[in-house]
Amino acid sequence: MCGICGWIDFDRDLGSPDARRELAGMTATMAYRGPDDEGTWIDGPAALGHRRLAIVDIQGGRQPMTHQEDGQPPLVLVYTGETYNYRELRQRLAALGHLFDTSSDTEVVLRAHREWGHRDPRSAVSELNGMFAYALWDTAKRELLLIRDRLGIKPLYYYPTEHGVLFGSEPKAILANSLAEPAMDADGLRLTLCSIPDPDSTVFRGMREVRPGHIVRVTRDGITQMSYWHFTDSGHTDDVPTTVRRVRELLEDTIQRQLIADVPLCTLLSGGLDSSAVTALAARFSDEQIQSFAVDFVGYTDNFIPGPARPTPDGPYVLEVAKYVGTNHTDITLSAHELMDPNVRAATLHARDLPLTMGDFDSSLYLLFRAIRQHSTVALSGEAADELFGGYRFFHDPSYVQADTFPWIEDSDDIARRSLDPGLVEKLDLTGYLDDQYRTALAEVPPLTGPASADPHERRMREVFYLFLTRYLRTLLDRKDRMSMALGLEVRVPFCDHRLVEYVFGTPWAHKTFDGREKSLLRAATADLLPLSVVQRVKSAYPVIQDATYDGMLRTRFTALLNNRNAAVAPLLSVDKSRALLDATDNLRGLEHILTLQDFLTDYNVSLTI
Question: Which stretch of 462-476, 491-505, 585-599 has the lowest confidence by average pLDDT?
Fold first, then answer.
């Protein structure tokens, strides 16, 4: 896992001292994503930078990596992520005559493009199983390819310029170049306030994101994009027992692939079905005892207050799974003061580069990863199981399913939006913006085929799953990547294996709820691995702190913000409406959102053009 960046300018030689300094500055922003090594490559119009977190072939996988043989002009690659099937691909390429200089997956990706992608890059990238984002410069064609994995696990941004493009794993790499301006317009503010990821755009004006499953091609003639993967209807014909067996087979194969690492590995364990299944399978297939880690809060279990999203505390289930499976387990216990530490909050904002906070979700995850990094470099996590198998209550409550919008919006806290200046609210038309985003997403949904296509509920559930997998999941994957990579920790997400996603996405809703509960297929596929209490446990969301101390500290900080007339966010707010936030019930998310937007505008020196 690494950080990448670069600059293409077809009207300039980037070997000049000024350009080299610009590239060095861009590369330096990725240092925490790749603390083990750095490298740059510059030739004419192309300048590529790389920071490395060494996971596989620690000695041989240095980047940027070039491939040149038989007098051909070189291909140059900067790569971040993991290709889990690189060993099989290496054997195939060796049989075709390729001689390898390293044992890294990076070289396999590079040679795959030379062998299969010289006519169409989709032929090469379609061979890869993994999480990745990379840039490939073809010196013969004078062409840059920016490529992102199918689900968007690894981030990749780009910024078109007059004569080329800037790109990076994170916005901060692009903003380190003098050609990029940290500016936010009305669309960026809409995206910030609605928290619905746009597949292309970002909160920064002019900056774009490579879409999952897409390739962006940059030449002197301009910038184009193409899809190499998308959700399709598989015409699922397997019965329930066959489907359960296939899910188990795919999970076992995926976990075994993702255990490959030349550094210490662990799992994230919450005591829920998803993380427990990952941990149990990892323990079964690992040659060493698996380490597991969980987040907890001071006094959380003893003073737990149940709610609709969190009916039970994690602690007792975590300990039961750790004992049952036989992991070497550690709880990371946090306090309100740690979560509100200004340095921690600044670190989480800097990690995300975006004013899209999840409050103590972000800071607790950051602190959890900081503790884990003292022991491990790779962690396996359970993200995407809820979106894939139907774990959230939104999938099972007709009022959410039938809502003519994103299902989770009905449950979303829009309290921050209610603090805005009324004139700004009218100008932004957030209701219209959300509706446009929703209609755009619906138009992408692949239609059902076969007998299920005649069932209106099956058709609607297909839409709901698509919305969660392409919009809701994106936010969680981005959060997990940023908080982990800010500390040089690689988090792998087995439930995002594209083979599993393709298979389960095409499975009828009736199969996914065959036992009358959420995540029926996953529960049946892994029940033999886990304690009965965990198999039967009702879904409980990622924990949030339940401590009045945290609430009070947040309110104090928000009050100080409202009293600061020179605050960057002040022109956007109605003071009277904002003060009402302090008296609102369940208002923490709204307070967090406004405070983070203030910090973002200040720390990144963002110019607003609304």
Answer: 585-599
